Amino acid sequence: MQHLGNFALMALFVFAAYAVVASLLGARRGNGRLLASGERALLVCSALSTTACFALVYLLVKSDFRFEYVASYSNRDLPFFYKVASLWAGNDGSLLFWAWLLLLFSGITVLTNRNKNRELMPYVVATLGVITLFFTYLNYWVCNPFHQLGLVSAQGTAVWAPVDGKGLNPLLQHPIMAIHPPILYTGYVGFVIPFAFCIAALVTGRLGSEWITSTRRWTLFAWFFLGTGIILGARWAYVELGWGGYWAWDPVENAALMPWLCGTAYLHSVMIQERKGMLKVWNVSLVIVTYLLCILGTFLTRSGVVSSVHAFAESDFAKIFLLFIGIAAVASAALVLYRLPALKSENELDSLVSRESGFLFNNLLFLVACFAVLWGTLYPVLSEAVEGEKASVGPPWFNTVNVPVGLALLALTGIGPLLAWRKSSLDSLRRNFTWPLIAGLVTGVTLVALGMRQVYAILCFALSAFVIGTIVQEFHKGAKARKAHRGGSYPAALWDLTLVNTRRYGGYIVHFGMVLIFIGIAGSAFDTDKKADLKEGEGIEIRGYDIKLAGIGEGTTPNYQWVSAKLDVSKNGKHIGTFAPEKHFYMASQQPTSEVRRYSTFQGDLYLVFAAINDDNKATIQVFVKPLVRWVWLGGIVIFLGTVVTMVPAKRELKLARQADKARAAKADLEAGKKKYEVA
Amino acid sequence: MKSLDRVVALVVVAFLWGGSLASQERLSSPEYHQVADALICQCGCGLTISNCGMENCHSAEPIREEIASRLLKGESVAAVINVFKERYGLSILSAPPTSGFHWMAWLTPVFALGVGLFVLFQVLRSWRRQTTLAADAPGTPDSNIPTVSDAQRARIERELRDFSN
User: Fold this and answer.
1) Which of A131, A592, B27, B100 sits at a 20 to 30 Å CA gap from A274?
2) Which ipTM value was assigned to this complex?
């Protein structure tokens, strides 16, 4: 199998190189056969990458510990599911997985563009080929997952295998963690397709809306997966790490957040280009920066430049990665500068109070947030280089800097959709803003009257009410108008309205999901926790909850030993249930983990951690009360639904597509008839 | 002599027990959280001392104990933070200090926002000026398009309002 894996990687490199050369030569000479062979070479690369991935998964499942990667990230008693997940547990395997996703998406792009974007495709294939070459180079020569363990002796080096592997990091042995990396990687890698089309558009000078339309769904797809990956990562941190939080501004979390912020800015600004032919330079720059941030994120995770609990061990390919990022940045910037005259706006701004201005402010805030995250992530490196002493940048700094920006973005989430394209009159502003503003103000004043004093939390809840007001108003107005126009029931009008303009109303659903996440985050201002050493029968009290230790249990599985604390929980005298947070001790890796238990409602979570057991058989129990945290996960689900709606073609698009199909069929019939006539 | 040993041992145990109870109480006080949130755990988890969840963490646990005991002795929040800063250097602080070179950590994002706003307003103003100039230019195609009068605009607004209500 190792020969198959290495052969596939080597062949992959050769075919990727051929795809680049054939595509560029074919485009230069106008040779259709060469172009087609270049595309087919990329398809072969997809098959070869699948083969290499399959070979590594096979070795992992077979527990073939002759291989360093298998011995480092797997063990015999690891369940099958996690053996497969070990593919992305380490640096070498995850890079192979990354390349596989890249080539899977490349293959889909080639297959779905056989009859369209023909002028762009040679350069799309060449760009994808160059990126494939880079990752394959890393996978074969720098971080080869098929590297065998050797025993060096006087007679030479002999193949050697340990009896058992070190096992998968226990923290990764969680269902969410098994699916979180592939989802996150899908987001990271997915941005390569818009990037490749953007480069192709810049090379060919076809800078209209063609490349944007072709990559709209890819952009949404990548953005959606990146966002889902971030939410799943937060959820995993919350349920698995046992510190009671879900976001720590860790460099690896930040690495995923940065391209998401930049990608979100692009998803908004691209609407101005589609509608008014403006912001062309800005949009190509955003696509390029988003992709470079994806690569930078990978670099930060793997290079060891910044320390993180999530990061892979420091490796020696930092220079290669930096070189690639540098070359990609310089080449892209040069292309943008070369095409600058062609990237001029087709229209100008009609008014400062317009949807266009709203989008520009929104873009500014997204990019400032993105820059702040990058700055905070890299500041320790900078401070060490300048001052000779590394300064840490932790949650207090990130919260201080990003919370005001986040609140401004939340406000714009409500303001933007209420502004008209081109120009908003005073009357329309008054008409659109009155009720949402009243909703926001009433919420704010009520919270203050109820005794809330946390300024950011009050602002967040008030702005959330304002944004929800705008969303409800938009749906209500549209449904009412549609009902008046078409008749039928109100729910049917609401449904119809959404299907007629899926992008707009799907976008509102996504905004609603974001508001729910903000509400959940604001709840963290009211977190509280308690820690106590309890004997059987003893208990602690926290915010109306009574938690009593009923007993301690223990047991063993082939993979780990466990000990649990049985806790009887009641609230205001009413028994809620019995919860048993556990402590696991994994035999292969010799590492302990905490398995928390939660009592979750929309009001908040009771979060129970079995921290330790003392020598005198007392259980150390840590209890957190975390208001509104469930809204974060609900927001994630709503965003998921909203994104699906935006990806569904609108009724008008479907009608146009059907008309185009009919026209194509009629044209084909006509040509067939012509041929018959000529033959006759 | 033996009984004296026993008494000393009992006193020590009582002190430790009492100290431990007091420490546990201190672990929930606002002052404790202020200090623990201001310090980063040195185990490499990247979390604050409040949040490090590693079992028996070699860094977080002794620091927590020390914070609690120092606060119990009446030391101020700033003084306790300073003790750890002196011992571990800047890397223990969860945010860069607001002094010297490290002001840059705080001011750069604000500066970026300022520059961004300035550039944005300049761009918007130039676009707006170009639009005005183009509209004012005689013989431009736009100038031949009949413009909407205030009365007509008011009527459109009224009808739109009636339609949406």
Assistant:
1) A131
2) 0.83
